[in-house]
C-alpha cells in the first residue's frame, strides 16, 4: 500500500505533467493577454477560451472561492501574465492594446516602450515575491496558481490529457480547489502586507 509520501510524490508528478502540457498547448501569454490585466482580458475577447469563464470566474461564481481569495488570485494572475511578456513586439502590442481598450490611454498602464519595459520588470519582481513571501516557494501551489490564475484553466482542465479515470480527475480537481483556497488566503495576506508597507514608506517619505 502506498505511503502518504508516495501519494504526495504521485500527486506532484501529475500536476507537473499537467503544467508541462498546459505550457505546450497554451498560446504565448503576450498573444492572449497583456495588460493590467483582467480588464484587458475581458475587453479583448480574442483569446483561446472563446468567451468561456476562466477558472477563477468559474470557482468564484459557484462560491468555491470567497471574494478575498478570488481577488488575490486574480492579482497574482495579472502579475504572472505581465511577467511573461518578453519581446519588443509583444510590448508594442501591449501598449497598443491598452490604448484601444481605454479609448486612447490606459490609466496606470504603460504608454511608451521604456515604461512598458519597467512595468514588466516590476511585475517579474512582484511575481518572485508573491511566490517566495506569499506562497513560501511551495512548488504545488505555485504550479496550480500559474495554471488556474495565470492561464485561466479550470481545475478539471488541468488533468484533461492525463490517464486518470473520471473519478480520479474529480478527486484531483477537488484537491486543486482546496489548494487554491489556501493559496488565495496566503496571497491575500501577502498583498495586504505589501500594500501596508508601501503606505508606511510613503508616509515616512513625507
Model description:
This protein has one domain. It is 73% helix and 0% strand. It has ten helices and no strands. It has helices at residues 4-25, 29-32, 38-44, 55-61, 67-84, 88-102, 113-134, 139-150, 155-158, 166-205. Mean pLDDT is 75; it is low at 22-52 and 99-107.
Summed up, what is this model?
This protein is mostly helical. It has helices spanning 4-25, 29-32, 38-44, 55-61, 67-84, 88-102, 113-134, 139-150, 155-158, 166-205. The protein has ten helices and no strands.
Oligomer type: single chain
- Which term fits the overall shape? globular
- Rg from C-alpha positions? 18 Å
Measure the end-to-end span.
Answer: 63 Å
Q: Mean pLDDT, nearest integer?
A: 75
Summarize the SSE layout with pairings:
Blueprint: H1 4-25, H2 29-32, H3 38-44, H4 55-61, H5 67-84, H6 88-102, H7 113-134, H8 139-150, H9 155-158, H10 166-205
Highlighted features:
mainly alpha; 206 residues
Amino acid at each position: 500500500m502506498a505511503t502518504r509520501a508516495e501519494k504526495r510524490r504521485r500527486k506532484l508528478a501529475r500536476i507537473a505533467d499537467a503544467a508541462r502540457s498546459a505550457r505546450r498547448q497554451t498560446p504565448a501569454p503576450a498573444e492572449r493577454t497583456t495588460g493590467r490585466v483582467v480588464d484587458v482580458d475581458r475587453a479583448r475577447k480574442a483569446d483561446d477560451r472563446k468567451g468561456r469563464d476562466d477558472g477563477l470566474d468559474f470557482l468564484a461564481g459557484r462560491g468555491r472561492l470567497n471574494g478575498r481569495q478570488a481577488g488575490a488570485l486574480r492579482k497574482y494572475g495579472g502579475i504572472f501574465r505581465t511577467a511573461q511578456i518578453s519581446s519588443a513586439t509583444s510590448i508594442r502590442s501591449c501598449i497598443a492594446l491598452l490604448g484601444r481598450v481605454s479609448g486612447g490611454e490606459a490609466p496606470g498602464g504603460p504608454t511608451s516602450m521604456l515604461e512598458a519595459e519597467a512595468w514588466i520588470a516590476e511585475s517579474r519582481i512582484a511575481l518572485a515575491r508573491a511566490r517566495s513571501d506569499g506562497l513560501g516557494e511551495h512548488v504545488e501551489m505555485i504550479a496550480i496558481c500559474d495554471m488556474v490564475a495565470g492561464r485561466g484553466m479550470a481545475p478539471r482542465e488541468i488533468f484533461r490529457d492525463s490517464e486518470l479515470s473520471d473519478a480520479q480527475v474529480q478527486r484531483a480537481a477537488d484537491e486543486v480547489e482546496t489548494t487554491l483556497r489556501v493559496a488565495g488566503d496566503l496571497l491575500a495576506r501577502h498583498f495586504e502586507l505589501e500594500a501596508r508597507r508601501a503606505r508606511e514608506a510613503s508616509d515616512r517619505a513625507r
